[in-house]
Amino acid sequence: MRAALAAAVLGAFTIAQAQDKPAASPPPSWQQGKPAAMQESTLHPFAIEMTGKAAKDLPVDKLKVPAGFKVEVWAEGMPGARSMAQGDKGTLFVGTRQLSDVYAVTEKGGKREAKVVLKDLDAPNGLVFNKGTLFVAERGRITRYDGIENNLDNPPQPKVIVDNLDPNKQPGHFWKFLTLGPDGKLYFNIGAPGNIVMPTYMEASVMRVDMKGTLETVALGVRNSVGMDFNPKTKELWFTNHARDWLGDDSPNDTLHRVSRKGMHFGYPYCHQGDTPDPEFGKHRSCKEFDKPALKLGAHIAPIGMRFYNGKMFPAEYQNNIFIAMRGSWNRTVKQGYNVMRVVLDDSGKVTKYEPFLTGFLLDAKSDPPMWGRPNDVMVMKDGSLLVSDDQNGIIYRVSYGK
Amino acid sequence: MRLGVCAAALALAGAAAAADPQAGKSKAAACVACHGEAGNSTNPAVPSLAGQPEKFIATALFMFRAGSRQDAQMTPMAKPLSNTEMNDLAAYFAAQKTAAPRHQTKPENAAAGPEAAKKFNCTQCHGPRLLGQQQMPRLAGQHYEYLRAQLAAFKAGKRADLDGNMTAAAQALSDKDIEVLADYLAGLGGE
Question: For A328-340, b where at least 16 C-beta lie within 10 A, e where not — what string?
Answer without folding.
Answer: bbbbbeebbbbbb
